Amino acid sequence: MDASETESEGPAGGRSGGDGSPSGGSATGVCRIECSVDWPPGHVAAYLIPGPEPILVDAGMAGERSRGELVDGLADYGHDLDDVDHLVLTHPHVDHVGGVPALLDAGDPTVYAPAGVRERFARDAADLEARVRENATRAGLAGDDHDHAVERAVDSLRRNRELLPPTAVDRWVEGGEAVEIGDRALEAIHTPGHQADHCCFSTTLDGERALLAGDMVIALFRAVLLHVGFDDGFERAIEASAGALDRLAGRGIDRVYPGHGPVHGEFEDTVARDRERLERMVERTHGLLSAGATTAAAVADERAGGGRGIDYLLPESLSALAHLEATSRATSTIDGKGVRRFEAW
Fold it and tell me: How many CB atoms are closer than 10 A to CB 108?
């Protein structure tokens, strides 16, 4: 997930069953495996669906510690790395694709990934750097902060496509597609916002409608809108996220298996809450403009309140400001230093 807008802190990393209990199967037979991460709530979850052809949804964090947690988590349910026949990925963030190399080294799983990732990973790093450099300047970043944003974006592209080589993907999955995986049918639901290519997967597990949700419909918080970061396309993040929530609503999901926080059965309430929090974030951004903030960096600083960094708040603030301008609630000009300055309407 890279980051989140946390409302409350969840449990630390470790392994647990699909119902949130320590080690063991869930009522629906889904096996939850947690890897540690260094941000709240301290873990990222992958899910093993047992059967004649075991399916793993997401692959955990990168690094030796997480590799060991993935190995131990599978072993808790009687499996080794090479027992995974199918690997389904919700989105290409480091804490969801980090274990892909270990799984590919150990076995030969059929790998499924959202179709948009193929084009994204084909992006020329030099071109990305140029776009991020200009957009970071427009956001009001300068000096070391500016250089950090550029390096972060390019490093992320290179790291994530090394973890998930496009040549290793066997099936590029489109949103709305029904995918036959092993002995199960999964429906891919395109849910951009947190990440532009993000897909959730719905299926029936022991008579329940289940959502393998990645970084959507999380009980603890609304995942921050990273979407495309500082790359071109951030302007559409608010509309994309709202559309994703609309696409999810009303699906009658009984149980949600998220990448962070507990498995839960509050699907419709959580979708409605995330929609309300998205709207509230946009309104707060408008209020900060009215109070005198003029750049995306200034808005992110105010939202952070001095208590945390703004790396993950900046793309979201950029997107909120672009949305306000597109809906005629703000206007902007570019000053002599190339910084885009906003004024609330």
Answer: 11
